[in-house]
Amino acid sequence: MRIAVSGTHRSGKSTLIDALSDLLPNYVAVDEPYHQLEEEGYAFAETPSVEDFEEQLARSIANLDEDPRDVLFDRCPVDFIGYLLAHEDRDAFDLDEWLPRVRRALRKLDLIVLVGIERPDRITLSASDDEALRLAVDEKLKELLLDDPYALEVEVLEVEGAPSARAKQVLEHLPVQEVQNKI
């Protein structure tokens, strides 16, 4: 299966990927596009620009084109649409231009696991974290994935609770033979 873990920054995505990697050792984990691009020398603005998020969106789409089955993706194209729609310069982003590519890419996923901000918040933020952006992106992602206003038509599982509970919810959602074959 091809599973993407989606959510705003500091929501527990990477922690969930780590837990799932331990539980599904035959799966390959793909790092989020930000880290991939940074490793390749891409210079992000101090405050990410629309262009920075579009670059990550393009990489996320490319990742879905390249990687084999049995993959855990840290983020998917919808994450970057959420950031772009919440960005202060969102009018510079042409969603309609990107939607056909995003829809094609998402067809290559079997499941998106949405890790939202919980109430009370389980994550302790640092002073440098942009709480307003974090909340806005969380809201946008829930709208995009759960309400599906752009007909993305992808299966979504929203998880909550402690990291071990989140991992258990994902495993329980997978077909029994998938879990048995991969453990």
Description:
The protein is an alpha/beta fold. The protein has one domain (2-182): P-loop containing nucleotide triphosphate hydrolases (Rossmann fold, 3-Layer(aba) Sandwich), CATH 3.40.50. It is built from 8 helices and 5 strands, in the order E-H-E-H-H-E-H-H-E-H-E-H-H. It has helices at residues 13-23, 33-39, 50-66, 77-86, 95-106, 131-147, 163-173, 176-182; strands at 2-6, 28-30, 71-74, 111-115, 156-159. Strands 2-3-1-4-5 form a 5-stranded parallel sheet, sandwiched between helices. Helix 3 runs antiparallel to helix 4 (77-86) and helix 3 packs parallel to helix 5 (95-106). The chain is globular. The model has no long low-confidence stretch (mean pLDDT 90). Residues 2-155 form the NadR/Ttd14 AAA domain.
Could you outline the blueprint of secondary structure elements for this entry?
Blueprint: E1 2-6, H1 13-23, E2 28-30, H2 33-39, H3 50-66, E3 71-74, H4 77-86, H5 95-106, E4 111-115, H6 131-147, E5 156-159, H7 163-173, H8 176-182
Parallel strand pairs: 1-3, 1-4, 2-3, 4-5
In DSSP terms, counting alpha (H) and pi (I) runs of 4 or more, how many helices? 8
**Strand content range:** 5-15%
Estimate the global geometry from the Cα principal axes.
globular
Overall strand count: 5
Runs in which pLDDT lies below 50 for 5 or more consecutive residues are none
Specify the helix fraction band: 40-55%
Alpha-beta classification: alpha/beta
By CATH, the topology is Rossmann fold
Cα Rg: 16 Å
